[in-house]
Amino acid sequence: MSPRIFESFRLTQRVAIATAFAASLGFTTLAAADQQVTALLRNGDRVTGLFDGYNNNQVYVDVSASDERKIPVGDVALLDFVGGAQGLPETELSQARGDEHVLLLKSGGATKGQLVSVEGTDRDPTLLFRTSSGEERRVRFSEVGRLYLGRYPGAAPAGTTATAAPTTTAPVGQAGQVSVAANQQWVSSGLSVAKGQQVTFVSSGEVTLSTDANDTATTAGSKLGRRLTAGPLPGQLAGALIGRVGNGQAFGIGNQAGPLSMPDAGVLYLAVNDDNVGDNQGAFAVTVTAGPTTPTTGSRPGRNRRP
Fold first, then answer.
1. Are β-strands 266-272 and 260-261 bridged in parallel, bridged antiparallel, or unpaired?
2. Which of 16, 27, 85, 221 is the most buried (most CB within 10 A)?
3. Whole-prediction pTM
4. 293 with 192: CB under 8 angstroms?
């Protein structure tokens, strides 16, 4: 990418940020479609903001309108576009500890190779990725879930066996343990599901949804009966356990014990139902078990059940 094109791209991003800021002040304007990202650094720090480009081995993240971070790519272990770089499944990390980069799409695909460049000047630029076989792939940033940049720090937990990142439907009986942090937008379950596949959720825990210590929720939802006016599932109980497949629509999980039929194919993500996760605390512990792909008597994703 030439410096001129890169500067044009960054100018476009700054216009988008100014547009969003004007909207927050009540001005009528077109909403921007910038990509929110969390950069996990090799020293353990996290930088969250709007992705503002990649050039000359530097990653640019706009933390705010006045705070632009320029991070050497060698310092970055992961760019996470779907969560906060927490609760990452071992199925991904086992692949990310090697020298190659690992590209995971929101649709569920996973590819090893090397990030080459970022192309384009619009608000959804293209990532150029060279696979291990030498093939060059161009992927829109809106399709990217996570990008591991090689040599992910840390060893595998004792007693675990390295397995490939999920690229096919989870086999019947495969289970995963997921910690769903209340202050993260979406957390990967590590399972790739098929449309119509039955999945069972066993969950526990309690989270706090604001600075009010009484504003708490179990996986069934707000203990005060509070419902969201906006957020992933508006009109439903705040704080309830919810899911999403790929980049699809959110659906309710709650505390129901019966299997749910997956609405689409792709990686299964989990979250708490909240419109502002920044002041949340705590996490849900969830065991996700894949079932058959032929619909049985399982429930369809929908409203959360209370005890």
1. unpaired
2. 221
3. 0.48
4. no
